[in-house]
Amino acid sequence: MRHLIIATAVGGSALLAAVPVSAQTQPAASPPSAPPPFATTKVEGTDNVYIFRYQGHQSMFVVTPDGVIATDPIGLGRPQAVPTYIDEIKKVTSQPIKYVIYSHSHYDHITGGKPFKDLGARFIAHKNAKAQLERLQPPNIVLPDEVVDSKHTLTLGGTTLELLYVGRNHSDNSLVMRLPKERIIFAVDFIPVQALFWRSMPDSWLDEWEASLKRVLAMDWDKLIPGHPGPGGRLGNKQDVENLLQYMADLAVEVKKVADEGKCYDTAMKEVKLPKYESWGNYGIWLAGNVERYCYLSQWILKAQERYLLAYGAARES
Q: Which band of pLDDT confidence, cut at 50, 70 and 90, is reported for residue 20?
């Protein structure tokens, strides 16, 4: 209950009732200020690697004496992000933008590249990304000029950038971009930093995802630039990848328990909880979707086993 200050007139004097200090009116705490809509940051320990963030998406660009290597235009639903991205690059260097590399084919990351193309940049993506874009013909997405199969090494102005395909995961065309000298990788969406996977993980290959993460772990690197900012804007590291693999293992165990009880999908989505990961980004809003996706995998494995047993039985009887 709030304490009131009571004034009483006695012989022309006002006597003030004592009030506990803790109850006295305190200035209201200022709410945390929202981050600016965009920011460009040089990666600590490097001379030429930058992160461009626009709202909740971010891209990497690398400056060299012979030009700039940029990545995802991130223009879906925010066309102003693309000219802002280009302007931010121009604040750092007068060198031309030579390349734009797509991390994968999902539109939220690669929409809006035409202003880069108009400046003469060549676009690079995994071969599966180009095939998908050619088939779907989405608006406002520049088709790649060059494609990558399993590996491609790009050298510009003394900087080496490896474009590596580690298998199917969040998509069937995600590239890991590795700067060997700087010991940095840029990987988008399939390695969230201390955060859950997006919703029900659509357009993904869950049974192959872990193998791709282990291939990333086997590479030589120290810092991970994700496609969405990590907690506090921090970069990822190998421990984050290990933690993500453990999350996937823990989730698989819990979902199998409820799947064996016949609770997939809706009941499982309500009942499965992983308190160990409550502090991770999007836990409250995306855990149910992650559970749903693992239920699909569990049911798929069960049906595959049933098909195998039926085929095996038929073979024995023949």
A: very low
Rounded to whole angstroms, the Cα distance separating 22 from 135 reads: 67
Reading the block at residue 76, the tokens are 């879906």
For 147-176, how does the pLDDT look when each residue is reduced to its tens digit (9 = 90+)? 999 999 999 999 999 999 999 999 999 999
SS3 category, 20: coil
Side by side, the strands of the sheet bearing 146-148 are 38-42, 49-54, 57-64, 67-71, 97-101, 122-126, 146-148
Half-sphere exposure (Cβ direction) of 116: Cα atoms closer than 13 Å: 38
Task: State the burial class of residue 185 (Cβ atoms within 10 Å of its Cβ: 0-12, 13-18, 19+).
Answer: buried
Looking only at the bridges linking them, the beta strands covering 151-156 and 146-148 are unpaired
- Measured CA to CA, the distance from residue 58 to residue 51 in angstroms comes to 7
Residue 253: predicted pLDDT: 96
Q: How far is CA 148 from CA 72, 90, 138, in A?
A: 16, 28, 20
Q: Tell me the C-alpha distance between 61 and 48, whole Å.
A: 8
Residues 215 and 218: their CA atoms lie apart, in Å, by 5
Q: How far is Cα 117 from Cα 171, in angstroms, rounded to an integer?
A: 25
Cα angle vertex 64, ends 62, 66, to 5°? 130
